[in-house]
């Protein structure tokens, strides 16, 4: 259950939450920006619920946690995703908090960077999870594991590129 919750949280809901903001995303390009922002919040909230649930499941099942590369990166991803969500609340109120364009840009860039750092930490943690002995035994094929790792990184980099394109165009509108 840990795997299902965390993979769905990070790799599906979080990624869709990032992609929905892009006007180039195939399923959301026709949706008005205000609704894409609402979808973004819904996907990110679902992602955090799934991630926390998956983490709690693993903490309950194991005596030792966060002592491997997989666990440490997962903890970093959890902390970053929580910071990103909290910072998202600040972004929503940025114009109320400051009239300075520089401050608003700083707040938004911080949100963007914590979000994308979360995505990369989660992908690295997932790849270390693929490398765990129990997963290797279950799959039984090193080529399949390497393929899963490659797919994870291609997907993560693709979402990241889409994120950077969208973010840079949004920041240009602020300037």
Description:
The chain has 175 residues and is an all-alpha fold. The protein has one domain: Four Helix Bundle (Hemerythrin (Met), subunit A). It is 83% helix and 0% strand. It has 7 helices and no strands. Helix 1 runs antiparallel to helix 5 (101-130). It is globular and about 55 Å long. The model has no long low-confidence stretch (mean pLDDT 88).
Concise account of the structure shown:
This protein is mostly helical and 175 residues long. The protein is 83% helix and 0% strand. 25% of the residues are buried.
Give a topology summary.
Layout (H helix, E strand, L loop, with lengths): L1 H18 L13 H29 L7 H24 L1 H4 L3 H30 L2 H7 L2 H33 L1
Helix pairs in contact: 1-2, 1-5, 1-7, 2-3, 3-5, 5-7
Write a concise keyword list for the protein shown above.
175 residues, Four Helix Bundle (Hemerythrin (Met), subunit A), 83% helix, 0% strand
Total DSSP E strands:
0
What's the CATH class label?
A: Mainly Alpha
Mean pLDDT: 88
CATH architecture: Up-down Bundle
Structural class: mainly alpha
Q: Separation of termini?
A: 45 Å
Order of helices and strands: HHHHHHH
* CATH topology type: Four Helix Bundle (Hemerythrin (Met), subunit A)
- Beta content comes to under 5%
- Approximate shape: globular
**Estimated helix fraction:** over 70%
Give the uncertain stretches in residue-range form. Answer: none
């Amino acid at each position: 259950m840990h795997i299902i919750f965390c993979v769905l949280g990070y790799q599906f809901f979080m990624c869709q939450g990032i992609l929905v903001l892009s006007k180039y995303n195939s399923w959301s390009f026709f949706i008005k920006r205000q609704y894409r922002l609402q979808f973004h919040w819904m996907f990110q909230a679902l992602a955090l619920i799934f991630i926390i649930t998956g983490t709690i499941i693993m903490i309950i099942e194991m005596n030792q946690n966060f002592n491997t590369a997989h666990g440490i990166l997962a903890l970093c991803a959890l902390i970053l995703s929580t910071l990103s969500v909290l910072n998202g609340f600040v972004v929503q109120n940025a114009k109320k908090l400051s009239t300075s364009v520089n401050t608003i840009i700083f707040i938004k860039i911080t949100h963007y960077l914590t979000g994308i750092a979360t995505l990369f930490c989660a992908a690295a943690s997932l790849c270390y999870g693929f490398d765990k002995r129990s997963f290797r035994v279950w799959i039984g094929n090193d080529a399949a594991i390497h393929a899963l790792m490659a797919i994870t990184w291609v997907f993560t980099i693709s979402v990241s590129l889409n994120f950077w394109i969208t973010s840079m165009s949004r920041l240009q509108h602020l300037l």
